[in-house]
């Protein structure tokens, strides 16, 4: 009868609503999975970029420190060479001085001895 038809119709509507709700829920789950994957991907990418940037910065700083150390060592070697040269030239001029004084001393001693 009409009551049965009405109940059947109501059940069909409920079933349809339930089916649509299940579909929407499945779709929502799918979207959530997709977003979760995208977020994870974005995090991994950002993390990798950060690691690369940190490594580049470290390499750059190390290179600058290395250049600074080389310059410092070169400057130290230059100063050492200059000082060494000055010492050598002082020794050389002192030797000349010593030789001329020795000669004068010998001459004076010989003159004193009546030579």
Ordered list of secondary-structure elements with their pairings:
Blueprint: H1 2-112
Question: Would you kindly provide a brief summary of this structure?
Answer:
Helix content is 97%, strand content 0%. With 115 residues, the protein is mostly helical. The model has no long low-confidence stretch (mean pLDDT 93).
Tally of separate helices: 1
Order of helices and strands: H
Overall geometric form: rod-shaped
Largest sheet: none
Helix vs. strand class: mainly alpha
Low-confidence regions: none
Q: Ends: how far apart?
A: 166 Å
Mean pLDDT: 93
Question: Can you tell me about this structure?
Answer:
With 115 residues, the protein is mostly helical. It has one helix and no strands. It has one helix spanning 2-112. The longest helix is centred in the middle third of the chain and has 111 residues, at 2-112. The radius of gyration is 49 Å and the shape is rod-shaped.
Features:
115 residues, mainly alpha, 1 helix, 0% strand, rod-shaped
